[in-house]
Specification:
4 strands; alpha+beta; 4-stranded antiparallel β-sheet; 8 helices; about 200 residues; single chain
């Protein structure tokens, strides 16, 4: 019995698109690149590389596969971020020379996880090390200070510090366990200038 010419399923060559040899090779190479990138970057901690046991990875490869900020770590404590400023000796008199809490959202309006990667400058730390992270923090704190002093001239600050407050996870909710004495505060960075009059 002859095949029905109107039934395209009778001839698999008519339903399977031809893929050129070059395209097939390119797709295989892309797949290998993705597999290697994940193996060399996402699945290898710094400790492994410090022992000399990690796969080779360039800075370009790190940039392409570095998505560690929110997705590749496991923690047992929840955290809130904080930014504080040390008041100058100018402006309102009630808190001169004291540390005051600054609004996170005023400087970082994104969601919590994104703000963590921005404030921690995760890329600089993970790609270039702690010295580069501190250099980035110096520039970041100067921008925060300048913005705050511009928008709050009566409460200007001379120094900036920031970090995180964390507490044990609780099945009742993200901040349900945020109670003394289990709350800990960690300052990541603090500018070294003493408060001075800006007059």
């Amino acid at each position: 019995m002859s095949a029905d010419p109107t039934n395209i399923s009778a001839d698999p060559r008519r339903v399977t698109p031809r893929i050129s040899r070059a395209r097939r090779v390119a797709m295989h190479l892309l797949a290998l690149f993705i597999l290697y990138g994940n193996a060399a970057v996402a699945w290898q901690p710094h400790a492994l590389h410090r022992m000399g046991a990690g796969l080779p990875r360039t800075r370009e490869l790190m940039d392409a596969f570095l998505m560690t900020g929110m997705f590749s770590s496991f923690v047992t404590r929840n955290a809130d971020l904080f930014i504080a400023g040390e008041r100058t000796l100018d402006g309102r008199a009630s808190d001169r020379g004291q540390w005051i809490r600054l609004s996170i959202r005023e400087h970082f309006p994104a969601r919590h996880g994104v703000v963590f990667t921005q404030l921690f400058v995760a890329r600089h730390w993970d790609t270039y090390g702690r010295a580069a992270q501190r250099k980035a923090w110096l520039a970041l704190s100067a921008k925060i200070r300048a913005r705050h002093n511009r928008t709050h001239p009566d409460a200007s600050v001379a120094r900036i510090r920031f970090g995180q407050i964390d507490w044990p996870q609780d099945p009742r909710g993200y901040r349900a366990g945020k109670k003394a004495p289990d709350v800990r505060s960690h300052t990541w960075f603090e500018e070294g200038k003493a408060p001075v009059s800006q007059r």
